[in-house]
Write a structure and sequence with these properties.
Layout lengths: L5 E6 L3 H13 L3 H4 E5 L12 E2 L1 H9 L8 E11 L2 E14 L1 H14 L3 E4 L3 E6 L4 E5 L2 E10 L6 H5 L6 E11 L5 H5 L1 E5 L9 E10 L2 E10 L11 H9 L12 E7 L7 E2 L2 E3 L14 H21 L7 H7 L6 H13 L4 H9 L1 H11 L12 E2 L6
Parallel strand pairs: 1-2, 1-9, 2-6, 4-11, 9-16
Antiparallel strand pairs: 3-5, 4-5, 5-17, 7-8, 8-9, 10-13, 10-14, 11-12, 12-13, 15-16
Helix pairs in contact: 1-4, 1-8, 3-8
The structure holds flavin-adenine dinucleotide (FAD).
Length: about 400
């Protein structure tokens, strides 16, 4: 008989791994003893992220009985800008901006309160799969499990060890700058998505998110380049960010610039193999906006359902995981987002088309929101044109 140290090994204690653990214990409290979460860092660990929780993420947390009580900024208005097209979308709120380090530590604490074992400071250094299970090499020795959930982020070590392919990655750069708490973005709850960078070859946008970090008001600013079209000439992203910051009175030289990729969904890549499930960024998230927290939480929900079914049948092949992902009410939105990315960035080859799409953006939003109201964090009728321009 094969010996297992644990039934399920979850690698990565970010939203995807912790959501998998939390969903499992919610389904059956005995899961707390059957699984371990390995996290290479210690909470509160730094994770480069805007910390924007959309209603998709908040709904999943709410369904788990988790209400975000951490300090946050509620954003009620998303401002979108491209050339002379200035639009605003109002939400209820549209986003809650949290400090990611605190958010993940909070999630981990909640999971622990349900008995979930999280081993901090333990690094996965290798993995082998055989017919009976998984052997994980870690910085603390070997672990044998029936199955493994790879929730170890965009640079997934599990994917690398198992030669799962590099996948497609967006590039993101971020800086946090001090700001007065009575800045209009804080006072009125506004976040900006500035798409002018499309004209500079960026397949994405520049953002300004108001946020609280260690009790101080900070503006989280950054640039998202999806790299959706892979055969575009390389672009100097830091210079473009510096160019976007200059009119805001910010010099890039005064702040540490940080970067991290987001691995986005490739529909051709299966998110499971016998004994292994990918979740969160390791599996692939949104190529259009780079939203990932909600999808990571949703992957956790689907991974937990799949593991429960495997436990019941003792079949660990995970043949239906891909289909479960496609059927999940949150994750199925990744496919329209891919289509959106194709439209938004594919059209860069024909600048006239990009401009035309922006001209009819309110109508496009209304149509999409009418077809798929559940996908929209904002009330589409409230999308309006700003005449005064955007600061
Ligand atoms: C600059 C930037 C801004 C972003 N802004 C937003 C935003 O505003 N809203 C939003 O929804 N999304 C945003 N995202 C995306 C979001 O951060 C990710 O999609 C999300 O963190 C994915 O969660 P995850 O659990 O899959 O991975 P992660 O959060 O990356 O967690 C993976 C965990 O695995 C651990 N780990 C890695 N390797 C090992 C190993 N070998 N052994 C043990 N542990 C390991 C890591 O320490 C980490 O804790 C942003 C991303 C970036 C880069």
């Amino acid at each position: 008989m094969t010996y297992y140290d644990v039934d399920v090994l979850i690698v990565g204690g970010g939203p995807a791994g912790l959501s998998t653990a939390w969903h499992l214990v919610r389904q059956d409290a005995r899961w707390a003893e059957r699984m371990i979460v390995l996290e290479k860092a210690h909470y509160p660990r730094q994770k480069l992220c805007g910390g924007g929780l959309t209603p998709l993420a908040l709904d999943i947390l709410h369904n788990l009985g988790l209400e975000v009580t951490l300090p946050h900024v509620s954003v009620y208005e998303l401002r979108l800008r491209y050339r002379r097209h200035h639009y605003a979308l109002r939400g209820r709120p549209a986003i809650q901006v949290v400090d990611r380090a605190l958010f993940d530590a909070w999630l981990a604490e909640k999971a622990r309160s349900q008995g979930v074992q999280i081993q901090e400071g333990v690094v996965l250094t290798g993995v082998e799969i055989d017919e009976q299970g998984v052997t994980a090499h870690t910085s603390q020795g070997l672990l044998r499990a029936r199955a493994l959930v790879a929730a170890d982020g965009s640079n997934s070590a599990v994917r690398r060890f198992l030669k799962w392919g590099r996948g497609h990655k967006a590039r993101l750069l971020e800086v946090r700058t001090g700001v007065e708490p009575d800045h209009p973005y804080f006072r009125e709850g506004i976040a900006l998505f500035d798409w002018d960078v499309l004209d500079m070859g960026v397949q994405g946008y520049y953002w300004d998110f108001p946020s609280w970090v260690d009790g101080s008001a900070m503006m989280n600013r950054g640039i998202f380049d999806s790299q959706f079209l892979s055969r575009r000439p390389p672009i100097p992203l830091p210079q473009i960010l510096a160019q976007m910051l200059a009119p805001r009175g910010v010099s890039l030289e005064d702040y540490p610039l940080q970067g991290h990729p987001i691995h986005w969904l490739d529909p051709g890549m299966p998110p499971a193999r016998p004994r292994v499930l990918l979740a969160g960024d390791a599996a692939g998230v949104d190529p259009l906006l780079g939203e990932g927290i909600s999808f990571a939480l949703a992957y956790g929900r689907v991974a937990a359902q799949t593991l429960n079914a495997a436990w019941a049948t003792d079949d660990w092949q995970f043949r239906d995981y891909g289909e479960r992902v496609r059927q999940d009410p949150c994750l199925r939105q990744l496919w329209p987002r891919r289509l959106g990315a194709r439209l938004a960035f594919g059209s860069l080859r024909w600048p006239g088309v990009t401009r035309g799409l922006w001209r009819i953006a309110p109508q496009l939003f209304s149509l999409m929101a009418w077809m798929r109201p559940q996908y929209f964090p904002v009330t589409p009728r409230r999308m309006f044109k700003l005449h005064e321009g955007i600061p």
